């Protein structure tokens, strides 16, 4: 599979104290690449997570949900090439055995290990390969890089996707590293979205969960490649509580974040942490999640255009998001962008079908900053030339104002091309 | 555009007394084919209709909605090549002028004329062409056939689509003729769905509306090509109240329908008609609507497979329909079928994402009558051979049982192919 034309370079990522990465080859498919990843965290690491809303989740998703209750993590364990979803008792038992094997090696509670698997649905995780794989990954702890891990969790991803950011929290610079795989907001046989964030910030699990939940709402939950939601989607955030020394690199203003750390509880790392996430950390985490989410869209199956859709003037933010996703998921809008066609009639259609308050005669639509339609019809003297020029680029901006209220949302998607059909019409066979 | 591989022959259709068809060329596009259709009905014809739920409907849709209040129709007027949607005051005025011109020629109330337009969004109906076109179509009344009308209302349709049925109502045989255009449940620039049904049955408008609404729920509202809902979707049913003599052709048992005609009001045709539709008429109308709806799927853009999805065991019928449409609209399911891939994992995914009650461990899935998965995993000793053979055919059956309750629904769709992308990535330009 050729690299996405929307790919970006893999960033330079720092090591984080106490975080050890190991990868190994279990051989879930007939390949020699690494397909098992273990990342060990220091004792007292906080964890937060969001998982698929699918009614048919994988056993790994169910394990993560259960293990999030303690808020404590000692390791992440990822398998690529087999999602273990819809595999009944056999799949659940194999995953549990793999988790238990790693817990024995790390001498920790199995409830502090967070498993995730991605790949084909319906084939139980092969127990022997999984255990041998995790043992080899454990033996390799400390030898692998973030890039190695990003490659090892990938399936049909065409480029490795990661990001970092920093923030000043309570006068200390904290670093956030994230890496992600997925080539569709979901393509469940192969491209379920798994994303992992590690920070040296000291945060109570409750604060970390609140920050991740808030960040997800405007980032991971605002991207779509094909409207299909995975059985395995998982985002996990780990906070090791060991801030790095200030590096002088790109940082984020504290925005008063330091004022909110009083009265918190101890997290394992020995730093004082609040139940509420510091605003500076929240901003940095949201920024990181947005970068990761956008990278997934940039590796969307068959994508040739990166599309940002901003909806304003809706009755509520939720209504704006529904309308934005109606546009983003419309096969007709997506094929029009693929064809570089300023087909704003299809935007009208997608607004109209969203089932949310809209008034045809107050609607306005613009491409790349050029208004094409308003007051229920095309603008007088509409000149398509600047719009056509915008559509020939790789980054497409669509703005819709409903003229009804203050609700707004921004979502990101990609176009629908022959590449998507080629990839998905013969993946499994 | 080549004829759909799923095309069926145009049926033999009877003329109906008092119903006169005329077609003409307005020239909405640079073509010589007929693109204006007028059908005149005898005084006292009842009418019923269902229209798009889009929040951005065309002025023709708004006119139909307003005119349905009287329940009386004297003519249908259809333009093809221009949907007149999102064209502001200019488009609405042009449509009103065209309706007024036909009303003058027929010497009737303009509120008894039902306009519909299909084609590109955003270009106001050209008033002069529209008026000249409808005048020519009026002059041609009585000279055109159902086939002529079906061709004249089409846009990117690859074959003309019509159906007929008969029923015995109150001891009389009544005939129902329907014709339809559309190549997507919606592709709004070109393939909005317009369907028209004419019957010589004598029915009060309220009864006709009740029958059409009920029929639509399990037919037109249970098909999807691409999940995109048009700004112009319109189904109109006209009952002229002049039963044909019994023909000895295919008829439908009355099922007690005759018993329900007592106490009705007079409809214009002079027959006694009930407020409630006779059961035999209801059954015939539903059958006709199902035929027409399935024909639209068979002409779905790029379609190579006709797919029936039956969901049973849901908590309610509405829940079953939502789940069935989640499967039918999933790009991953549709591309899998295009690739003849028995990818039942994608069915699991689509059930899981539907947002309706489902239990992974009670779900069962079958293709072409062969159960492939149940109790949360693949069936023991699963043999893919019969499923693979079924998927090589043109008519694909997918059955999903949720094991939760008595709710059920059946929907129809087609596969997602390179043809769909080709058609839609460069339609307008």
From TrEMBL, chains A, B:
GO terms for molecular function: L-glutamate N-acetyltransferase activity; L-glutamate N-acetyltransferase activity, acting on acetyl-L-ornithine as donor. It holds the Pfam family ArgJ. Its EC number is 2.3.1.35, 2.3.1.1. GO terms for cellular component: cytoplasm. Residues 253-273 are annotated as: Disordered. Keywords: Acyltransferase, Amino-acid biosynthesis, Arginine biosynthesis, Autocatalytic cleavage, Cytoplasm, Multifunctional enzyme, Transferase. GO terms for biological process: L-arginine biosynthetic process; ornithine biosynthetic process. Substrate binds at residues 155, 181, 192, 301, 424, 429. Residues 255-271 have a biased composition (Gly residues). InterPro entries: Arg_biosynth_ArgJ, ArgJ-like_dom_sf, ArgJ_beta_C. Heterotetramer of two alpha and two beta chains. This is Arginine biosynthesis bifunctional protein ArgJ. It comes from Sandaracinobacteroides saxicola.
């Amino acid at each position: 599979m050729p690299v996405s034309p929307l790919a970006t370079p893999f960033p330079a990522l720092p090591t984080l104290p106490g975080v050890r990465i190991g990868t190994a080859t279990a051989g879930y498919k007939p390949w020699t690449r690494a397909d098992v990843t273990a990342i060990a965290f220091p004792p007292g690491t906080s964890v937060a997570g969001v998982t698929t809303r699918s009614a048919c989740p994988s056993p790994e998703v169910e394990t993560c949900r259960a293990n999030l209750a303690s808020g404590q993590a000692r390791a992440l364990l990822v398998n690529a090439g087999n999602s273990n979803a819809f595999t009944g008792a056999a799949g659940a038992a194999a995953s549990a055995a793999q988790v238990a094997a790693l817990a024995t090696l790390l001498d920790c509670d199995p409830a502090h290990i967070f498993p995730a698997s991605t790949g084909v649905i319906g084939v139980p995780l092969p127990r022997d390969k999984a255990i041998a794989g995790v043992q080899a990954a454990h033996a390799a702890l400390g030898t692998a890089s973030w890039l190695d891990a990003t490659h090892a969790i990938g399936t049909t991803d065409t480029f490795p996707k990661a990001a970092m950011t920093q923030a000043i929290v309570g006068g200390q610079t904290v670093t956030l590293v994230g890496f992600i795989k997925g080539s569709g907001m979901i393509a469940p046989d192969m491209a379920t979205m798994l994303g992992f964030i590690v920070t040296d910030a000291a945060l109570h699990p409750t604060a970390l969960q609140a920050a991740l939940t808030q960040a997800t709402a405007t980032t991971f939950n605002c991207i779509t490649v094909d409207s299909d939601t995975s059985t395995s989607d998982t985002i996990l955030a780990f906070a090791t509580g060991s801030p790095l020394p200030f590096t002088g690199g790109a940082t984020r203003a504290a925005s008063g974040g330091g004022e909110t750390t009083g009265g918190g509880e101890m997290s394992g790392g020995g730093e004082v942490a609040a139940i509420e996430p510091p605003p500076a950390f929240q901003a940095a985490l949201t920024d990181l999640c947005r970068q990761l989410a956008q990278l997934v869209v940039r590796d969307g199956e068959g994508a040739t255009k990166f599309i940002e859709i901003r909806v304003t003037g809706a009755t509520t933010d939720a209504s704006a998001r529904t309308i934005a996703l109606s546009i983003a998921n419309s096969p007709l809008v997506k094929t029009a962008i693929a064809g570089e066609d300023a087909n704003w009639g299809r935007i009208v259609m997608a607004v109209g079908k969203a089932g949310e308050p809209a008034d045809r005669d107050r609607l306005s639509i613009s491409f790349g900053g050029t208004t094409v339609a308003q007051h229920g019809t095309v603008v007088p003297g509409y000149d398509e030339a600047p719009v056509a020029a915008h559509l020939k680029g790789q980054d497409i901006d669509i703005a819709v104002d409903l003229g009804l209220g203050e609700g707004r949302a921004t979502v990101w998607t990609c176009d629908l091309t022959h590449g998507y059909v080629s990839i998905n019409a013969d993946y499994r066979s």
